[in-house]
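Quick question, first post here. What does this chain look like in 3D?
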Amino acid sequence: PVTIIASAFLLLTSGFFLPNASREFIHVFNIYSLSAPFFLLSDHIMNIFLGLKKYSLFNFKRIAIPLMYLLSILFLMHFKILTSLNIILSYFIIVIVDAFIAISYFIRIYGFTLVLDRKLFFGAIVFGFKSYHFDIAEAGNQNLDQLVAAPLVDAQNFGIYEVARYISSQINVFSSSVHNLIFPEVRSLGLKQGWLLLGKAIFYIFPISIVAALILSYVSSYIPIVLGNEYGESIYLTRVLLIGFVFLGICQIFQYGFLGLDRQHEVAYINLFCLIFAFLCLLYFVPIYSTIGAAYSFVAMSVLKFIIFFLRYYNAVRSLDIICR
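> Answer (accepted):
Ran it through. Tokens below.
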């Protein structure tokens, strides 16, 4: 309910807060605002499944939804109807489908009742206030480059950027396989053992991600052969974005480890700080350098986030006199 109210507020006041924005940007902003409740609902349900160790459904969502988004971009490009508004509408439809799938599985497994437990309901809202800012900031870290670039870049270049972004994001299959497990495992261990497990996960996954990124960077040279010469620019974009996704994937492991160790507010503040940093970078670089500026901004945000998480982890480990081996 809180998310729906916030979304409605943004829809009604977008013209007031963005008086100089173009009509197209207002449409993009409104569609993103409208999709927020569905996105957060699906994200919460998936985190419930993650906490219950239902990894198959969680991983299905992480693979199927980005794939649907890529196919929608290719569909729009094939029929020459690729506009920023159509791209955002495709995103909105996919977010609704995503939420519907999550809700359907949840009802199928746990059932559904219209009986309202007021104590549980208001308790969930109070608890939700502690996590809403985290969810919004995290979603921004993941997708802000797309949101800012969509109205500022021509549709053809944005489509090429989305293809490069999808291909490079596949590098996170390695970090995802770990951070899906790290939250429940770290939470079940003691403080010292939890920090130790988190350090070992980072130690093993980081070099694997780097090697996989190098392989994917080489494979990206075949993009024009598969999709056409007009996608030639996506080779460089893919290689730049790979750097960002390697660091962002490691940050995801840090993040879920920190959450498992009851450092929710710390994670939220890191995400919020990085979100503001990324937004400022995007506003400066995208109008000048187009999609390359968006890619560089994404990499800068990811590296900054990694540095902050690493320093916080190092301080926590040192304070507990833990040596990760």
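DSSP finds eleven helices and no strands in the chain.
The radius of gyration is 20 Å.
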